[in-house]
Amino acid sequence: MSVTRLLRKLNLRPRTRSGNGGSFAYYDAQSGSHLLFRWDGSGLTKSDEIVLFEEEGPGFQPLHIQGHLTRLLFMIRSGDVIAKLVWVVPEARCRDLDKVVFSWVRMWEAAFGGRFPPIEYRSENGSYLGSLGTSRNARHRSGPTSEKSVDFE
């Protein structure tokens, strides 16, 4: 996956001066605990919102995917403004990935009342494959949705 190609294709700017921008560190002063989340990359929108990139190979596991979704929620609750999550996946596995993501996201939203940021799927070359729920649609949507997420508060 080329983070540079995705940044260009999505009209984003780099989040960091070096590297892929995928590392996010958190520290809790009261407990002295540290967390480090590593994504495959990220970029910033014109309004400084974060777009996360995560690439999955053909042999991904549901628990691994759910771990990414849990980290995304932690980041949001910690104050990061996430505009979108972009999964990079082989086109042949897009619907399989969406089945895992869609079920987890919708169950979480139903149980806790919050909304996830938009989620979309792209091929290794950055081509748009679909958005959350594409596994339930007979046809892929023609482009990314403009749907906005709602705060969890």
List the helices and strands and how they pair.
Elements (H helix, E strand, L loop, with lengths): L2 H7 L3 E2 L8 E6 L4 E6 L2 E4 L5 E6 L6 H16 L4 E7 L5 H19 L6 E4 L5 E4 L22
Parallel strand pairs: 5-6, 6-7
Antiparallel strand pairs: 1-4, 2-3, 4-5, 7-8
Question: Key terms for this structure?
Answer:
Trna Endonuclease, Chain: A, domain 1, 153 residues, globular, six-stranded mixed β-sheet, alpha/beta
Short summary of the structure?
By secondary structure, the chain is α/β, with parallel strands linked by helices.
Please, could you describe this protein's structure?
- It is a single chain.
- With 153 residues, the chain is of the alpha/beta class.
- It has one domain: Trna Endonuclease, Chain: A, domain 1, CATH 3.40.1350.
- Helices cover 27% and strands 25% of the residues.
- The protein has three helices and eight strands.
- It has helices at residues 3-9, 62-77, 94-112, and strands at residues 13-14, 23-28, 33-38, 41-44, 50-55, 82-88, 119-122, 128-131.
- The strands form two sheets. The protein has a six-stranded mixed β-sheet, sandwiched between helices. It has a two-stranded antiparallel ribbon with strand order 2-3.
